[in-house]
Amino acid sequence: MNQPAVSPTLDTLFQRTLMRQPHAPALLDPLNKSRITGHQPRRLTYAEADTAIEALSAHFVESGLPANSVIAIQLPATVEFVLTVLAAHRAGLVVAVLPLLWRQAELAAALNRTAARAIVTMSKVDGVSYADLAMHAAAEAFSIRHVFGFGTDLPEGMAPLDEVLARPPGTTRAVIQDGRKAAMISFDVTAEGFRPVPRPHFSLIAGGLAMSLEADIQQGATVMSAFTPMSFAGLASSLAVWLLCGGTLALHHPFDSEVLEQQINEHACDVLIAPAQLALRLGDSGLAARMPTLRNVIGLWRAPEQVAASEAWIAPHAPLTDVYLFGEAGLFGARRGEDGVPVAVMPGPHGAPREQSGSSIAGEILLTAKGTLGLRGPMVPIAAYAPPQPVGETLTAQPPRDYVDTGYAARVDRVSGAINITAPPSGIMAVGGYRFLSNDLQEWARRLGQGALLTALPDRLSGHRLAGRAQDNARAREALNELGLNPLMVEAFRDRSGPI
């Protein structure tokens, strides 16, 4: 009897490379990890990573987490993040990624919306106690049964995972490896509000393929990922790209330019994946001399409307590939030519690589009737972005929609026929990669007290940054904590006594 074709999972891709080259380097920690988390940097081969993944996976099973349940992860870009994601998948769990910028209010909302059974975090990141944050958020989520943590000085009630990595693996669970199964849940903000976005393995792999094929990443490459991994684009550009090329993944906790250059040279990295503005900042005329091993640079644009006006890339030894990000809905890439300027993106199906005839279709770009950009394809979670049912028509079948409206204003150039993205979704701001409704600014400013001002200022690296003024700094700090706003999102609040 013929066996049905089963698409691979992320763990399948990992084990393929493990069987081929178990002693090859797999994962490299940031060089400044001791400052970030208090841990010493680690370097793991595929065999060593597999042992750690097996130990964590067994611990999740022994803790009583049922197959297909959700485990939330809020970790920095370190080896522990990669090991935890792969261990969760090996145990048959679905990973919900929680951005580091989130505080208690967002965490509690995400845990409740996904009915997460466990959360994994780090004791401290850049001096901030994420362990306490996770414990407080878990107390507000009825479904949470376990809180796991890496690091020392964990609060009472949090299960330590460092000692799990140090002991032999225990109980295993048979899991069907099928790429159609749910792999991750990320979170987006649209005009309709906060939205969980689930994805299967094949969708993540499709995102990684769209990047790696367009950028022409070679097999066995050493990939430097300097993009926060707590999103679809973050996972696709780090985990998926690494597993597809079967090479080495070096991680950088954003951002320290000097440490990043040191890592690239020390590890002889072939590929750099980073926010596009950071990549352009590095890509001056001296890039070849400073980082001679680089052969590819992938720049991720959180604000895709800025690509067309960006400066030319002037490092021909390492071509730049622009990757357009549309929240959690999807992405597409376009490699720049020899002149270094962004290439025209045409509507319709696009392959990977884009300019190669007969290449596999990575997705499709279209212009909606509302004058906004639409996406369809294997990486686009159409069901997650289905429009809300009209009031009073709950029993009426709605016409099927096979694309996602990203909300980005766009038009077709009359001369070239290319798509021009002109503006971000109306009413939505992005701060450090975190999206929120513009109307929330008014509520936040009201909570800061009389005479307070809160506004979002354009920022080339992070999209926008929050800035404002407050007459009462103590009240402003208290209100920020009540609102769950991470201080990293806020540039400064000033009165006569200076910033808070």
UniProtKB/TrEMBL annotation:
GO terms for molecular function: ligase activity. It holds the Pfam family AMP-binding. Residues 14-330 form the AMP-dependent synthetase/ligase domain. InterPro entries: AMP-dep_synth/lig_dom, ANL_N_sf. The keyword Ligase applies. Keywords: Ligase. It comes from the Bacteria. Belongs to the ATP-dependent AMP-binding enzyme family. This is Acyl--CoA ligase. It comes from Bradyrhizobium campsiandrae.
